[in-house]
């Protein structure tokens, strides 16, 4: 059984306002999320996209060069559902970044 690769979908700052407070929308996604380990999150998401996002957030590629996202204990990883579809995401500085298959 192969796993789907989840691609970057959106973050809560850019979310369509019509999909925030509806059943199954962003608020539901956040309220119903389940915490997961980074290693689980990493099994599902597109690694190239994640690396681009990590760099754009100011993280180093390697711990000897500075703080990496993997080493940041304040980043939270989760799984949830968006209108019934499984999503994986992370929360960084109180902003949710969501990946969908």
Describe the fold and architecture.
There is one protein chain. The protein is an alpha+beta fold and 101 residues long. 23% of the residues lie in helices and 29% in strands. The chain is built from three helices and five strands. Strands 1-5-4-3-2 form a five-stranded antiparallel beta sheet. β3 and β4 form a beta hairpin. The longest helix is centred in the middle third of the chain and has 10 residues. The radius of gyration is 14 Å and the shape is globular. The two termini are 15 Å apart. 15% of the residues are buried.
Q: Assembly state here?
A: single chain
> Please, how many helices?
3
Low-confidence stretches: none
Q: Report, as a whole number of angstroms, the end-to-end distance.
A: 15 Å
Rg over alpha carbons: 14 Å
By DSSP, the count of extended strands is: 5
What is the overall silhouette? globular
What value does the average pLDDT take?
93
The SSE string, one letter per element, is EHEHHEEE
Beta-strand portion reads 25-35%
Largest sheet: 5 strands, antiparallel
